Each structure stands twice: as structure tokens, then as C-alpha cells.
Amino acid sequence: MRLAICDDDDLERNFLHSLLKKYFSETSISCEFTLYDRGVNLYCDIAEEMEYDIVFLDLFMKDSFGMDIAKKLRDIHYDGKIIFCTVSADYALESYDVYASGYILKPYSLKEIRSTLDRFIPEYQCDCYAIRQKAQVVYIPLNEILYVESSNTRCIVHRRDGREYHVYKKLAEIEAELKDPRFLRCHQSYLVNMNYISEANDSFLLQNGEEILIRAKSKKEIQQRFLEYKG
Questions:
Q1: Where are the domains of the chain?
Q2: Which CATH architecture has domain 140-230?
Q3: Residue 87: band (very low, low, confident or very high) from pLDDT cuts 50, 70, 90
């Protein structure tokens, strides 16, 4: 995904950049950012066929009015998303005239950025599992899930990089939500990503050295499913 941030205030522009990097680090989306300090430069690049999925556009800049830049972008058929950034909500209604996707007030906060982006970012996600963590939704790429473990009244989603997410759901419910052939229910307490199994004996040995139990009564059937998956 390509994103542009246009703000003539260096501190504000860089702070928004840092918050957006933090936000997208919690998704499966790889982002490339371009930072602008003048609205006219942003307009010229897009007019010359530079493509951006989202433009974060400050309303009040020394060289231009952000709303005018947005109108010009729509006039040349820019169909990406525009999110206005400003210290005032005075132009919130007018932003709908240029089909703005959001309106973020300064000073910036990660909470408000999440609130704005969470409404449409999932459309850019693919093969992810959404987990609500307190006041935010985290999208975990399925290929990043190592295994899911049932523990008392909750489940723990184990990520390849070592991060863990606690979910108050039954393992059967998560299995149904994932609906992906790479995940094997090998035990009443484990749902494992077969792409990361290195050895299959009385238990599964994962590539990171962890051992996952196999249900004894169904060991042959489970091992056979693993062999069939690996082809």
C-alpha cells in the first residue's frame, strides 16, 4: 500500500508518520510512505500518475488550502482515499464534497487514527484473523499464526515472532472462524499451523522447537491428515 502525508509542519508530519507506522505494524499490510511539505507537489506527482491508496492531507498549509488540493485531485480523477488532518472541525461537512474517507483532528493520537482507519482498512487485508484487544482490532496474517492453544476459559494465539494474543473464545469457535486447511485440530487444546511442523511423531515438533501434543486416540488419523496436506 502506498500512502502520502502532506503537511507543511515538519513536526506534525513526522509525528503522523510515526503513528501510522505503528498502526500498520499491527496489520498484514506493507506500506510505503511519501512525505510532502507542499500541497502543489503532491498534486503534481498524482497528476503525473503517481498512485497513492490513501492521502493524508493537512487543511491549512502556507502554500495552499487542503480542500482546494482535494478538489483538484478529484478533478483529475484521483480515486484513492483522502483523509483530512486539521486543528479545526469547521470543514467537516465540506469534506464530503470531495468524498473524504475521514477527518482527523490535531493533536494526533493513535486512538483517533485507529478509529478512523479501522472503518475501511480491512478491505485491504487478505487472509487475516481479526482479534479485538481492548479498544483496538488487531489483524493477524494467517501465515503468521504458529498455533492456537486453549487455556482454561480463553485461547492464546501464538504468533511466529513470539507475540501472544489472549482471546476469550473456545478453541472450536476459533477453528470455525479460521476455516483454513493449513490449521489442524490435533488435540483438544491445540490448533496448529501445519506449515510450521518440522517433525511428526507422537507429537508435532515445530520449526521453532516447540512441541505440540497429538490426541492419542486419533494419532494415526491426525498424522495421515498432516502427510496428505504436505503432499
A1: 2-124, 140-230
A2: Beta Barrel (2.40)
A3: confident
